[in-house]
Amino acid sequence: ACSGESATETESEAADSPGGTEEVKLVLNWFPKSQHGGVYSAIEEGIFEENGLSVEAEPGGPQVSPVQIVAAGDAQFGLAHADQILIARNQGIELVALAATMQGSPQAFMFHEGEEIQDFDDLNGREVFVQPGITYWDFLKNQYDLSGVTELGYNGQHVNFIDNKTSVTQSFVTSEPYFMELEDVPVETMLVSESGYDPYNVVLFATKDYVESNGETVQKFVSSYVDGWASYEENGPAINEVIVGENPNIALEALNFETETQHDYIYGMDAAENGIGYMTEERWTTLKDQLLEIGLLEEDFAVTDMFTTEFLPDAN
Amino acid sequence: MHIEVQPSHTYDVSRYNILKTSLLKTLLEGANDVIIKKNHAVYFRNVSKIYNTGTVALNHFDFPVEEGEFISFLGPSGCGKSTALRMVAGLGTPTSGEVTVYGEPPEELIKNTNDIAFVFQDANLLPWRSVLDNVLLPLELRGGNKKENKQAAISVLEMVGLKDHLTSYPRQLSGGMKMRVSIARALAARPKLLLMDEPFAALDEITRQTLQMELLDIWKKEKMTVLFVTHNVYEAVFLSSKIAVMSARPGRLSSVIDVNLPYPRELGMRTHPAFSDYVDRASASLENDEKRKETV
Amino acid sequence: MHIEVQPSHTYDVSRYNILKTSLLKTLLEGANDVIIKKNHAVYFRNVSKIYNTGTVALNHFDFPVEEGEFISFLGPSGCGKSTALRMVAGLGTPTSGEVTVYGEPPEELIKNTNDIAFVFQDANLLPWRSVLDNVLLPLELRGGNKKENKQAAISVLEMVGLKDHLTSYPRQLSGGMKMRVSIARALAARPKLLLMDEPFAALDEITRQTLQMELLDIWKKEKMTVLFVTHNVYEAVFLSSKIAVMSARPGRLSSVIDVNLPYPRELGMRTHPAFSDYVDRASASLENDEKRKETV
Amino acid sequence: MAMSEVEMTKKQQALVAAGKKQKPFASTFKELYLGPIIAFILFLSLWQMIPSVLGLPHYILPKPTDVWEATVSDWSLLQEAIRITIFESVIGFFLSAVIGIGVSVLLASSKILERSIYPYAIILQTIPVVAVAPIVVIWFGAGFNSIVVISFLIGFFPVISNTLMGLNSVDKSMDELFTLYNASKWQRMWKLRIPAAMPYMMAGLKISCTLSIVGAIVGEYVAGIGGGNGGLGYAITVAAIQVKTSFLFSCGIAAAILGISFYLLVSLFSKMMLGSWHESAMKSDK
Amino acid sequence: MAMSEVEMTKKQQALVAAGKKQKPFASTFKELYLGPIIAFILFLSLWQMIPSVLGLPHYILPKPTDVWEATVSDWSLLQEAIRITIFESVIGFFLSAVIGIGVSVLLASSKILERSIYPYAIILQTIPVVAVAPIVVIWFGAGFNSIVVISFLIGFFPVISNTLMGLNSVDKSMDELFTLYNASKWQRMWKLRIPAAMPYMMAGLKISCTLSIVGAIVGEYVAGIGGGNGGLGYAITVAAIQVKTSFLFSCGIAAAILGISFYLLVSLFSKMMLGSWHESAMKSDK
Ligand SMILES: Nc1ncnc2c1ncn2[C@@H]1O[C@H](COP(=O)(O)OP(=O)(O)OP(=O)(O)O)[C@@H](O)[C@H]1O
Ligand SMILES: Nc1ncnc2c1ncn2[C@@H]1O[C@H](COP(=O)(O)OP(=O)(O)OP(=O)(O)O)[C@@H](O)[C@H]1O
Ligand SMILES: [Mg+2]
Ligand SMILES: [Mg+2]
């Protein structure tokens, strides 16, 4: 892919591909994991193909920013957390959220068992590993007095956390606790969402321009995506094996653990009633207001521009 | 006023034009200068050289060299002989005064031709080139037929007695052999003006004599002008048409001896009384100089 | 059987022991050897040197040098003079045969003493050290009182006529001046064995004569042994107690001339008929050699 | 360079000694600074134009003006970050230089040592920092110390590699001189090999000084900021997460300017050290 | 090195020509390999002991045996990762070498060019990769191309810096020779400056080859793996998250071994290139 092409150019190029199927690219927010189960399910089961799409899922990584890649037109769809999609607004990147994979945020603080951390105030006096710039940390600092926290950079390692019994690290409840268990390090977690900061996670998005001019493709994609997740609920373990093929360094058991723990976030909560991918204006507005308050958003705007449920299948 | 300009070697047009302008300039000052300029291969005009260490290497050095002459420079160590030669080659500029080569500043001349060759006081060979390739260097730089160049290089190397060492590297040679490569390199370029800084100092008497004869041969054949630095008074007398004796600190020209022995010179001449006479005169001039300095 | 061993310089105990063992060894072969060994500063025993390029630099070179001698090596360029000297200094090993210095292999000797100094064919100065510091180098390496060392260095530099250039760097010196620094460096170390490879080749006649006289002075005073390479037959005769004439390819010893002129030598001797005689003999030996080669 | 320097000196000298061909300021200016200035202006205008021409939005390639705005508006953050990074990288570089040269000298002093230990220096260089970061953090604590250690780890190899090369490329005949004078191993080291290796050492330091900044930034990245304030690495991470590309560029440019200043300082130092003899640093007098 | 090489050659030669003091294999072995082997064993045993003595658990500092187990059990993963990283870094290094030397030659050919452009080379070196990663990814796409570019970006500066230094440190009197013979700028470059700069160039390549591996690993970190399979950078990231410290060390060591092999190859190449004249690479014959 080259630089100068705007989204529309890429799209027309994409549309011209032979065989009647349209090629689109999806950038994942991380190396393939269970949180991308719906994508791989849709690919594996031929759901995208049935809808006339040929989808390339490009793995993310520590420093890969799907927001930027999609904004630059190098991919049509991306996965990111809701707050990232909102913050991109500051830069004039107009994205539209199409489906929320997880109805809530599995982001959590993980600490050693018996550390007696009940509330966020209890983080004071401890070393906390958080990724510099991660939004919920700003939110928490705004909500609580965390001046006693020694803030350390989170870098994807947990060794230093394990080494220091009183320390706390950011984590996903769907992932890290499993690895700790493997290492016989008993841990507990405290969800960030308990603070009231609960963005949708792993949100499918595209640029506003793209959505406006390629409604049909977007419709096909979102439908397939949701169908993919539906089918993943049935045969998660089988799809996980496919994912291991894409991300050979992760253990199947870890994926299965994730599949289990993320189940409620995907299929439960609001989705239980309203279907997979469901989003509400209220949740988006709350999040937007929270970000506004802590200064991560520079100006107010109507969230209705920011997300749409029009491509989601009608609630059953 | 009619001035006949008869350049003694073939100038290309651009150089001829340079010459013309400098001629026109000098015309304003008087026609004599024109004639002088045209005939001089090298002209030191009141040249002084002060290195930035404060060392006065040359002091009001004034010396014309006519085309086709063979000039030897004699003088104590450190008196500025190398400095003078380097200036002729454009590798140093006078602090005051002027050096001209064929009427031009040497830097200009160098830029336009390949007519000057220099045998440096140390051999100055490229360590990564074999003997043959070192000699080929000036020919390569000038261009021309590769095969002919190689032929030329080999024949000069044969002359200096190194034809068995074509593929040796400088570090595999003895001191005298390195110097001979350097001499071969200079001769291979067939220069009009040959500057040699103690080229034979590292050679034994017999090799030296052979090379002296060869050098004189080439000099005559090619109508070169040679500036030759040596510490050997016999050598100076044997080779030169004129000897410039210099004195030390600051380097001045102390006397000029015209050697009126006929060319071609033969080894036998060395026993000739006239020869000894010149040797004595040159030695005396050197020694006087030394004494004068001591009494000061 | 009683053998009197009277080492001519003061050995420290360890070296004396080495000497003893080598004496004992030789005792088994015959007492004669012992006496020869003890008196020889340098002994080339049937030395051959073949460089890995295949060049035969020395071929069955056999030459003893007694202590206190002043030996000059004469020979055509590339005949192996430098090679021979370097082997004496332990900077090269014979391909076959043996070089001993005071009865020991030179590498051993070097490890135990500072008694050898070498004036290389090129000046070989450290570019980052001033003239004074270059001369100080061997003294520094040996240790000793800094002030005394400096005094000693300055006085040798004065002798070679460079006392005005103590703080100059090598690149600011003329060719002859560099060589003189190198000579000063060697002399400052007051060696027992002095190896000089064409030390005066880059010097003018007058400086050369002064240094010759100084060298002879020091040689006598310090009871040094000197191996001296030169291309100048006059110089060889004037300085040496013995001249080794070498012939080229492969380097052999072609003749040895004992110079029975009395010491101290004076400049006036050069006009002495005996002197010319020696010069003629040496030259003849060199030339014969050359001719012999040509007829082969 | 050799050429033009020679040229210059010739002129300078004519100026000093003969005092006739006075060289006007304008021409010095032209020779020395006009090129870089034109290049800089060209570079800036190209950069200003490219995003517009290619239609790249500012969050992908911000224009210089965007970067300038971001710099001005977040100047206080940037300033603090720069201060911290300077501190970390200077110490890291200092360690690289001292330990690098020290280790090289040690290694060069014995072939066996070199053969035995040098591979570990290469290992230290190639082993990815992320792999050893936890250990570094455990041993040195999160934050400053670890960052300095990582900056050192990244910067020291060029010093070792170059210095060793230099120490081992001593002119043969000078080496023989020392052999002859029965110089001890350390005398040879101090009086011959180290002075001879100077130019190589200095080339190594020049590489290392810019790497030490990269090291400090990477260090903050992998070793965390340890409770203190964050330097450029921290600022960059935050900017990247918040897609503040313009500010990210401000930080990047700040790092680059640091690098250049650092490089110039080390070059100056190198000129001073080599001044007395090495061709590349020497103004020759002809 | 100069010393011991000289020593060796002397012996070798004595062996070849005189054929008397035949040097037994055992002694060569002792000189060449014993040191490194002892050092290696020492290193391994120290490493094996440290975790036990200090009570460091295996997820902090795994023992060599742990690492070995992890390597064996995940060998297929590791092998694939190594293959990919080799590919990326070789291309990155190749670009560094070719572009680095090319640019240096260009810069050295004109003082004005050097003054105008060299600062940007320093900028490219110091600007943190993370800062430019988004652009790199957008221009070259996530994955392979970007990784190669990043590997190049990290590796090319030592080449430029060293080569420039070499090109500018030509012996003055040789330079004069070329002036005298009216050599054109490019003749001087090809026939004088480049051969004279060889040793510096080679020193630069040696540094750059190890850096290019670091670059490939960092590249995967910041530019992602794109559609293709991941190399060591990817393996390290994933291993870190999964607290597979032993495997992480396997990857690190694999990177280090790559680095050493790469270094040795480049050294060999350098010896070949310099063989004909430079002291540091030359077996002298005395
Ligand atoms: N680059 C330099 N910088 C400073 N001084 C110099 C430089 N080159 C030469 N000199 C000084 O200039 C004087 C003349 O040097 P030059 O090399 O011309 O002497 P020379 O006549 O060739 O001597 P020799 O016969 O010993 O070669 C000497 O005193 C020397 O120290
Ligand atoms: N390192 C070397 N490798 C190969 N051959 C060499 C080496 N050094 C010298 N030679 C060869 O050995 C021969 C003798 O060299 P040496 O330097 O001893 O001559 P020399 O008598 O000192 O000559 P000169 O008077 O020219 O200095 C020469 O033919 C030379 O080519
Ligand atoms: Mg001279
Ligand atoms: Mg010799």
From TrEMBL, chains B, C:
<keyword id="KW-0547">Nucleotide-binding</keyword>
<dbReference type="InterPro" id="IPR003593">
    <property type="entry name" value="AAA+_ATPase"/>
</dbReference>
<keyword id="KW-1278">Translocase</keyword>
<dbReference type="InterPro" id="IPR017871">
    <property type="entry name" value="ABC_transporter-like_CS"/>
</dbReference>
<dbReference type="Pfam" id="PF00005">
    <property type="entry name" value="ABC_tran"/>
</dbReference>
<dbReference type="InterPro" id="IPR003439">
    <property type="entry name" value="ABC_transporter-like_ATP-bd"/>
</dbReference>
<keyword id="KW-0813">Transport</keyword>
<keyword id="KW-0067">ATP-binding</keyword>
<protein>
    <submittedName>
        <fullName>NitT/TauT family transport system ATP-binding protein</fullName>
    </submittedName>
</protein>
<feature type="domain" description="ABC transporter">
    <location>
        <begin position="42"/>
        <end position="273"/>
    </location>
</feature>
<dbReference type="GO" id="GO:0005524">
    <property type="term" value="F:ATP binding"/>
</dbReference>
<dbReference type="InterPro" id="IPR027417">
    <property type="entry name" value="P-loop_NTPase"/>
</dbReference>
<dbReference type="InterPro" id="IPR050166">
    <property type="entry name" value="ABC_transporter_ATP-bind"/>
</dbReference>
<dbReference type="GO" id="GO:0016887">
    <property type="term" value="F:ATP hydrolysis activity"/>
</dbReference>
Automatic annotation (TrEMBL), chains D, E:
<feature type="transmembrane region" description="Helical">
    <location>
        <begin position="32"/>
        <end position="61"/>
    </location>
</feature>
<feature type="transmembrane region" description="Helical">
    <location>
        <begin position="147"/>
        <end position="167"/>
    </location>
</feature>
<dbReference type="GO" id="GO:0055085">
    <property type="term" value="P:transmembrane transport"/>
</dbReference>
<dbReference type="GO" id="GO:0005524">
    <property type="term" value="F:ATP binding"/>
</dbReference>
<keyword id="KW-0812">Transmembrane</keyword>
<feature type="transmembrane region" description="Helical">
    <location>
        <begin position="120"/>
        <end position="141"/>
    </location>
</feature>
<keyword id="KW-0472">Membrane</keyword>
<protein>
    <submittedName>
        <fullName>ABC transporter ATP-binding protein</fullName>
    </submittedName>
</protein>
<comment type="similarity">
    <text>Belongs to the binding-protein-dependent transport system permease family.</text>
</comment>
<feature type="transmembrane region" description="Helical">
    <location>
        <begin position="197"/>
        <end position="218"/>
    </location>
</feature>
<keyword id="KW-0813">Transport</keyword>
<dbReference type="Pfam" id="PF00528">
    <property type="entry name" value="BPD_transp_1"/>
</dbReference>
<feature type="transmembrane region" description="Helical">
    <location>
        <begin position="81"/>
        <end position="108"/>
    </location>
</feature>
<dbReference type="InterPro" id="IPR000515">
    <property type="entry name" value="MetI-like"/>
</dbReference>
<dbReference type="InterPro" id="IPR035906">
    <property type="entry name" value="MetI-like_sf"/>
</dbReference>
<feature type="transmembrane region" description="Helical">
    <location>
        <begin position="247"/>
        <end position="266"/>
    </location>
</feature>
<feature type="domain" description="ABC transmembrane type-1">
    <location>
        <begin position="82"/>
        <end position="270"/>
    </location>
</feature>
<dbReference type="GO" id="GO:0005886">
    <property type="term" value="C:plasma membrane"/>
</dbReference>
<keyword id="KW-1003">Cell membrane</keyword>
<keyword id="KW-0547">Nucleotide-binding</keyword>
<keyword id="KW-1133">Transmembrane helix</keyword>
<keyword id="KW-0067">ATP-binding</keyword>
